[in-house]
Amino acid sequence: MDLSSFKANISKLGGPAVSHRFEISIPYSGDGSRVWQRAGNTPANAGALADKIFKVTCLTAELPGKAFATSEERTYGPIRKRPYSQFFTDAAFTFMGTRHMPEKKFFDSWMDTIQDPDTFDFEYYNKFTTDVTVTQFDVTNKPVYQCKLIEAWPLNIGAIALDWGATNEFPRLTVTMAYRKWKDTSQKGVEGRFNTQIVSAGTGTTSGGRDQFEGQQIRYNSTTGENKYYGK
What we know:
Elements lengths: L2 H10 L9 E4 L17 H15 E3 L5 E8 L6 E9 L2 E6 L5 H13 L10 H4 L1 E8 L5 E15 L14 E7 L2 E4 L5 H7 L1 E2 L6 E2 L1 H16 L8
Antiparallel strand pairs: 1-6, 2-5, 3-4, 5-8, 6-7, 7-8, 7-9, 10-11
């Protein structure tokens, strides 16, 4: 493929996506987020205030990954890997430190909510988690991808370096978030996409992707004698 054809094909897809247009949403107030609960702000209003500030001060974010944990089985011939659990990688965010450092105070307070700094007692899990949303935009500022980190909480707050010589720089705060799982929320009916969009080979007709996959798996297992493990 020559360069012109390559550019034409990319153009048909709308051009390359951009990574510099995004925003995050962290709608968390928490019992300990005192920095946001000033001037008469209720916890709910405090959470909305934090959410607005982080949409502006978040410098870098990640669309997180996922992977399968597998076990290896070998009856005869090459090893076969079988997935038995899914796990998700932690997500890192970098924030600009503004004049009064509310970003640092917010996450420090959130950490103190998770574990009391005086008694060292831990809070109940559902009291310190929230859903964090990362939205990616195109060059026209239309959302093209969005994922939600479910039951997210700050796992690690990075150190901030202070330097007398850094007169033209601003502090950067790196926060690593743990979460239970994430979902692609940019499209509705995520499960249905796989179920309905598989085109049967050579027929041009669509069929249920999951049913098709399971049927193929059953037929394959019948040749290896493994259907007994699946109740087939």
